[in-house]
Design brief:
The protein is α+β, with helices and mostly antiparallel strands. It is built from twelve helices and 50 strands. It is about 15% helix and about 45% strand. The chain has a 17-stranded antiparallel sheet. It has a six-stranded mixed sheet with strand order 4-5-3-2-1-30. A four-stranded antiparallel sheet has the order 6-29-28-27. The longest helix has 21 residues, at about 55-75.
């Protein structure tokens, strides 16, 4: 029975396969336009741009060592080589995609990054360090045994039961090993651990706190709590049990109910492990009071970056669970003189994305008149660092440059901006002369070394640079004019970070004390922050810094101590240990990558199931593509054997698909298929049935492009044909086809609690359906357009108002009556009721093939269909979310589930049809949003009154994807 259930699941999954873009657009575009090569070693098949061979050689030294150490720990050995794609683009992320639905395992690790990985994660932006995290995922993916191992070897990658684990285990395991393998990383970085300690000190941690759907942790609950949970397990039980649990999971039927794997690995239940984790967390991260000398000035937000000018002006970028990312500027008296969201929604906007994590180089000129910052934003295709300036008296941010790197600091006069020049696996310190626009490298770094940021002294003569020197997080004091390194502060243990100068020229930095960041001035500890400190800046004899309390950063203040007789001595910086040439990994081959590499190999070759009229078709799916995602193909064939007296012959079906990304960011997709089937149909006589013989034909071509994740263009064409024959009755055929195009602009700003908070949507689409390609009476031109806005209400942070308008017209020589207004709601109905007993009008859809309709939904008219050729629609909706955020990681009887929120809504909707008749409805709805097995779902109860037509009071309950 177990084998049968697994095989049935496989067949069902195989039918879902097709052609789809696997890599993000920026990664795919970089691959398509770079001179890519394929390098093979004993452990890796690596695709890289030819210009980055030196970076790849250094990457392999670290990655190969990490891969070997991880594989030595794994309970299930694997010799399968790691397939790694290294795009030369600031993707600022990395991932491992497990083999599924015919796509093989692959890791994407860019050759360079421009994101500040250090402040919150404790990692230099080095591809080798990032690989040590990602390869843990890859080895976990390779923990496959039993039925699924045999099936994958025979038919290709379709499913991996490791996918049944929640993200907290994936990320908790990887972050634990990122620290164990490299000596640095999240589980021991004082900012990261301080966030956990501040949030959970003195509190019980339920299994729901592990969920990726939790929203209070800006770094993600699955990262924050998952990392600490796996850290605890490894510290308490050692490394072996977690790998035994993964091995047990490798033999699971689906992996969805995974608590038993922990019992297999640890010998105790998952609930017991959680209880032990709570006891460990309470002991390791106890409740700590604020010291009496520390004064709290303000609550900043859930995540933040902070700066302070010499005149006392302050600036911070912050966001909260129900407030968007915004820049706040206060004068020396504490008055807010500027506050505005970073993200704009109107066209020609400066920033399309904003988050404190994306901000670097936040700094203020000595007179407090200018605030400077660099924000990682979405460019046309790639992420780009935008250097921005705010001036007193101006209404918004002005872009100065978009071709530099992560920011460092503005000099006191506002004449020079210092930034990090990114070149593969090194970040150097550079200076931009703002008057001339010329840039120069101030401190050139060796490979594997990174200047991560800097702050300038009050006189503009020195820079305190935060540095990863190849072996430690250190502070270098740099001559701001010559670039000479005049002093080095290297810790004996733990990191030094976030250095700056006091007004009298002393060096101030963050140092680790009992695992918590505290502020040091010339080597003397001056704070006792309960959990951790960040961004200490001095002005006017006081030090202000961000202090973590609960789920927020607070602005705290302590007095600047007088100068000591002498600064505490610091150790001389050791020479960074670079990998010797003998440690280079031997390349077995290195050749140009081909668009046909692995293309003809059927990565998917599995049985599949298709349904026609409820009757099964059994068949085979073949699918493949090159490993760089430039081409993807799929071919499927099906057969429905004659069963009893149903039909007169065997019926067949086939599907083909092709995806081409060689012109990325433009993608081309072509699909075609047919399915013939026979099925019984009921008659008035329950003892007598007829046979339906049906044939469908479908084809489509689409060319798509997206700009700045905002403007999307798609053009192509389609054709669909449906032929029905019931017993001896004449054939009934319907078909339609023609060219189509769509253009959409969408911009939005949101928060974790409200979702979309401000937005603008402008869209237009059209299609021409010639008579020669349809069963309609003449040519039809289908035109539509939409305009929608979302705005926050002036009361409360979570209230939003959505206003939308839409027009749709079918233009033809004669009236067609082909446009359906209302009659559909987009939900799977579970229950419905109406105060009117008579049946509402229905729409005649027999004139259409099953894959094509002209439909315009109208809220309040989900059960009432209006036939027309033209419609103008409008809707206004107020929404307020009631936050729940409670869930469970898994129990013996219930898999991972999470209750997110209840959305309350009031709405009014209306439309005019071609005859000028008005159709109006008002109502309210309650929507429960939750996740089950990590699938987002929404169950809605709606009550509405139609004000015209039948004036019915309608109620229904429906379920839909919770997107």
């Amino acid at each position: 029975m177990r084998w049968f259930l697994s095989a049935t699941l496989v067949v069902a999954l195989s039918g879902c396969a097709g052609v789809a873009q696997r890599f993000p657009t920026d990664v795919q575009t970089s691959i398509a336009h770079d001179d890519m090569r394929k390098l093979e070693t004993g452990q890796f098949i690596l695709y890289y741009p030819a210009s980055r061979r030196d970076v790849v050689d250094r990457f392999l030294v670290k990655a190969d060592r990490c891969a070997r150490e991880i594989r030595e720990r794994a309970a299930i050995p694997s010799r399968r080589k790691f397939v790694v794609v290294m795009p030369d683009t600031p993707f600022n992320n990395a991932f491992v995609a497990a083999g599924a639905l015919g796509y093989e395992d692959v890791a994407v690790i860019p050759t360079f990054s421009t994101l500040d990985f250090t402040t919150e994660f404790g990692l230099p932006p080095d591809p080798g360090f990032i690989a040590c995290h990602e390869l843990v995922h890859y080895v976990q993916v390779q923990q496959l045994a039993g039925f699924w191992k045999g099936f994958s070897d025979l038919f290709g990658d379709i499913y991996n039961p490791q996918a049944g684990y929640d993200p907290w285990l994936w990320e908790g395991l990887a972050t634990t090993y990122e620290a164990r393998l490299t000596g640095i990383g999240r589980p021991q970085w004082p900012i990261f651990t301080g966030m956990f300690a501040a949030a959970y000190a003195g509190k019980h941690i339920s299994s729901g706190e592990l969920s990726a759907f939790g929203r209070q942790a800006s770094v993600g609950h699955h990262y924050l709590v998952g990392s600490m949970f796996i850290r605890f397990l490894v510290e308490r039980y050692g490394e072996r049990p977690i790998w035994l649990a993964l091995a047990n999971q490798a033999r699971a039927l689906t992996g969805w109910f995974f608590t038993g794997t922990f019992k297999a690995g640890y010998g105790v239940s998952f609930g017991t492990l959680l209880d032990e984790f709570n006891a460990w967390a309470a002991q390791t991260f106890p409740v700590r009071p604020r010291p009496p000398q520390q004064r709290t000035l303000a609550s900043i937000g859930n995540d933040a970056r902070y700066a302070r000018g010499r005149d006392g002006t302050e600036a911070w970028v912050t966001e909260d669970v129900d407030a968007p990312a915004r820049l706040v500027v206060r004068d020396a008296a504490g008055r807010v003189i500027y506050e505005r969201s970073l993200v704009e929604v109107l066209p020609l906007r400066t920033l399309v994305q904003g988050d404190p994590l994306l901000v670097s180089g936040l700094s203020i000129t000595a007179d407090g008149r200018e605030v400077w910052l660099t924000v990682l934003d979405q460019g046309a295709t790639y992420q780009t660092p935008r250097l921005l300036r705010w001036r007193r008296g101006e209404r918004g941010l002005e872009q100065i440059r978009d071709d530099l790197g992560p920011g460092a600091t503005i000099d006191p006069t506002g004449r020079t901006y210092y930034y990090c020049h990114v070149d593969g696996d090194r970040w150097s310190l550079a200076a931009l002369d703002l008057a001339s626009g010329t840039a120069r490298t101030l401190v050139g770094m060796k490979p594997g070394m990174y200047v991560l940021g800097a702050q300038i002294s009050a006189d503009g003569a020195r820079l305190a640079a935060n540095v990863w020197d190849g072996s430690a997080f250190a502070i270098w004091i740099v001559d701001a004019h010559t670039g000479q390194i005049v002093e080095r502060f290297t810790p004996a243990s733990g990191p030094y970070y976030d250095a700056s100068f006091t007004s009298d020229g002393r060096v101030m930095w963050l140092g680790a004390v009992a695992g918590r960041f505290q502020v040091f001035v010339d080597g003397h500890q001056v704070t006792e922050a309960p959990y951790t400190a960040l961004a200490p800046r001095e002005a006017g004899g006081t030090i202000r810094f961000l202090d973590r309390e609960g789920w927020s950063w607070e602005l705290a203040e302590v007095a600047l101590p007088p100068p000591a007789l002498a600064a505490l001595p610091v150790e001389a910086a050791p020479t960074p240990k670079l990998a010797p040439p003998s440690s280079a990994i031997t390349a077995l081959s290195d050749e140009p990558a081909s668009v046909f590499d692995h293309f003809f190999y059927p990565q998917q070759r599995s049985p599949a199931l298709a349904l026609g009229g409820g009757m099964p078709h059994f068949g085979l799916v073949l699918g493949g593509g090159d490993r760089l995602g430039l081409q993807r193909w799929s071919i499927a064939g099906y057969a429905q054997p004659k069963v009893g007296d149903i039909g007169t012959r065997t019926h067949y079906g086939a599907q083909v698909g092709y995806l081409n990304n060689m012109l990325a960011p433009v993608s081309i997709t072509a699909l075609a298929g047919f399915l013939d089937w026979a099925a019984p149909t009921a008659t008035d006589d329950p003892d007598f049935t007829l046979t339906v013989e049906r044939r469908t034909r479908d084809a489509s071509l689409s060319i798509a492009y997206t700009w700045r994740n905002s403007l999307a263009l798609a053009a192509g064409g389609f054709y669909t044909d449906d032929d029905i024959k019931i017993d001896v009755e004449p054939n009934l055929r319907s078909h339609v086809g023609g060219p189509n195009a769509a253009l959409q602009f969408f911009s939005a700003e949101g928060t974790r609690y409200t979702g979309i908070r401000r937005a603008l949507l402008v869209a237009a689409e059209g299609a021409f359906l010639p008579k020669q390609l349809s069963t309609f009476s003449g040519d039809i031109t289908d035109l539509g357009g939409s305009l929608a806005i979302v705005v926050p209400m002036p009361f409360g942070r979570r209230h939003t108002l959505s206003l939308s308008g839409r027009a749709r017209a079918l233009i033809a020589r004669d009236d067609t009556g082909l446009l359906q207004l209302g009659g559909e709601g987009g939900f799977g109905l579970l229950w419905e009721r109406s105060s009117v007993k008579t049946m509402p009008p229905e729409f005649d859809d027999l004139r259409f093939p099953p894959a094509f309709r002209f439909v315009e939904p109208l809220r309040g008219y989900e059960d009432y269909a209006i036939t027309t050729d033209r419609a103008e629609l409008g809707e206004a909706t107020w929404k307020y979310p009631i936050i729940i955020d409670r869930g469970t990681a898994a129990t013996l009887f219930l898999p991972a589930s999470y209750l997110q929120q209840l959305d309350l809504a009031l709405f009014g909707a209306g439309a005019f049809d071609k005859a000028g008749d008005a159709h109006y409805a008002v109502g309210g709805a309650v929507t429960l949003r939750f996740q089950f097995l990590r699938i987002p779902l929404a169950i809605t109860y709606q009550i509405a009154r139609r004000l015209v037509d039948d004036e019915a009071l309608t109620q229904w309950v429906g379920v839909a994807p919770g997107i």
